[in-house]
Amino acid sequence: MTVPTRLFSPGSWTEASRLAVVLRKETVGGVLLMIGALIALVWANTPWSGAYDSLRDTVVGPSDLLGLHLDLSLGTWAADGLLAVFFFVAGLELKREFVAGDLRDPRKAALPVAAAVGGMVVPALLYALVNLRAGGGALTGWAIPTATDIAFALAVLAVISTHLPTGLRTFLLTLAIVDDLLAITIIAVFYTSTLQVVPLLLALVPIALFGVLVQKRVRSWWLLLPLAAVAWVLMHESGVHATVAGVLLAFTVPVVRSEAAGGPDAGPGLAEHLEHRVRPFSQGFAVPVFAFFSAGVTVGGLSGLGAALSDSVAIGIVVGLVVGKTVGIAGATWLVSRFTRAQLDPALGWLDVIGLAVLGGMGFTVSLLIGELAFGVGSLRDEHVKVGVLTGTLLAALLASVLLRLRDRRYRLVAEQEARDDDGDGVPDVYQRPSAES
């Protein structure tokens, strides 16, 4: 007799223990992100706000080096350069999940992929509906409320101290990773205003060389880093957002060990090795610095806040993040359950799914990036985007905190069950049960 597929089940012990480490690092990164954003927001609303703007707009880099234009502001270096590192790590994690993780099983991959798609389509539609008659290019920002910031979401979970079950945490992480890939695709396709074909084709050369080296399991940073830098520069010159280079480089990295090195059972592959090396820089420096340079918006008191939130762009972002993400993620999950006859894990209910979907409305990092690409750094609409993103993210955090805290007593019981190891073999009993998908 076939056991029905369980949604949000803990998965395998190997994958759960690995993701637990990743989630802890993301949580620390989320706290640093919040600190960076808070410093910027406070600074931008003091009498010294001009100093913040001057720092963000300080130009660094050569204006004409071999025909390349790398004289960029610090804010642009953070958005184009540092976030390329962030997307490199996201690409490594995504490939790891679909090649060697639990998501290599299409039945398990269907839920986070469907939820990510739903969590992008519905917010975009709601934003478009709000701005349908707004004019002034408001519809350009349709993709702003489509992103989920996993680091910010996990930081909120740490602050409210909820014992969210492993299955839900894993789902949130994988959903956000797929979300990042979809977001970078949107940026590459819809926010490339001018395309220079020659630099784009040339960028494929260092990416290919990088791929050859990593496929041969070369780990020498003095070979890999210059190739990555050249790929980034050429991608930047092509007009395609330079962060795309980070994802393409990540996809060339092998996930499992070669047979000569012992095969898949010989330990972590190069992708996991690079992820361990690069993630601390990404979460501890790259993302917080981007947040610092992007979150600084001069609100101008309650009147200024009211003026910003009266803009249909800001309204569309708030509605998209708070309502759109909830409906999109929860709705897609229900559709997967309805049409595949999968069932929720017995320990969970649909209120848990809704709470997690609301938490998915925290779209900070990538939302701010898309806002800058859509309306231009420092423009009035960009300032309103920041207010909308911050407001929507804060509302999503508060609503999710209430819903998830209401269920925390239940989560404590689930956590105790997940930690039980009656036979003392070091593997919790819940991970030794017959597979629900078999």
TrEMBL record:
<feature type="transmembrane region" description="Helical">
    <location>
        <begin position="348"/>
        <end position="375"/>
    </location>
</feature>
<dbReference type="InterPro" id="IPR004670">
    <property type="entry name" value="NhaA"/>
</dbReference>
<keyword id="KW-0472">Membrane</keyword>
<feature type="transmembrane region" description="Helical">
    <location>
        <begin position="197"/>
        <end position="214"/>
    </location>
</feature>
<dbReference type="GO" id="GO:0005886">
    <property type="term" value="C:plasma membrane"/>
</dbReference>
<protein>
    <recommendedName>
        <fullName>Na(+)/H(+) antiporter NhaA</fullName>
    </recommendedName>
</protein>
<dbReference type="GO" id="GO:0006885">
    <property type="term" value="P:regulation of pH"/>
</dbReference>
<feature type="transmembrane region" description="Helical">
    <location>
        <begin position="387"/>
        <end position="406"/>
    </location>
</feature>
<keyword id="KW-0050">Antiport</keyword>
<dbReference type="Pfam" id="PF06965">
    <property type="entry name" value="Na_H_antiport_1"/>
</dbReference>
<feature type="transmembrane region" description="Helical">
    <location>
        <begin position="142"/>
        <end position="160"/>
    </location>
</feature>
<keyword id="KW-0739">Sodium transport</keyword>
<keyword id="KW-0812">Transmembrane</keyword>
<feature type="region of interest" description="Disordered">
    <location>
        <begin position="417"/>
        <end position="438"/>
    </location>
</feature>
<keyword id="KW-0406">Ion transport</keyword>
<dbReference type="GO" id="GO:0015385">
    <property type="term" value="F:sodium:proton antiporter activity"/>
</dbReference>
<keyword id="KW-0915">Sodium</keyword>
<comment type="function">
    <text>Na(+)/H(+) antiporter that extrudes sodium in exchange for external protons.</text>
</comment>
<feature type="transmembrane region" description="Helical">
    <location>
        <begin position="313"/>
        <end position="336"/>
    </location>
</feature>
<keyword id="KW-0813">Transport</keyword>
<dbReference type="InterPro" id="IPR023171">
    <property type="entry name" value="Na/H_antiporter_dom_sf"/>
</dbReference>
<keyword id="KW-1133">Transmembrane helix</keyword>
<keyword id="KW-1003">Cell membrane</keyword>
<feature type="transmembrane region" description="Helical">
    <location>
        <begin position="172"/>
        <end position="191"/>
    </location>
</feature>
<feature type="transmembrane region" description="Helical">
    <location>
        <begin position="27"/>
        <end position="46"/>
    </location>
</feature>
<feature type="transmembrane region" description="Helical">
    <location>
        <begin position="109"/>
        <end position="130"/>
    </location>
</feature>
<feature type="transmembrane region" description="Helical">
    <location>
        <begin position="285"/>
        <end position="307"/>
    </location>
</feature>
<comment type="similarity">
    <text>Belongs to the NhaA Na(+)/H(+) (TC 2.A.33) antiporter family.</text>
</comment>
<feature type="transmembrane region" description="Helical">
    <location>
        <begin position="66"/>
        <end position="89"/>
    </location>
</feature>
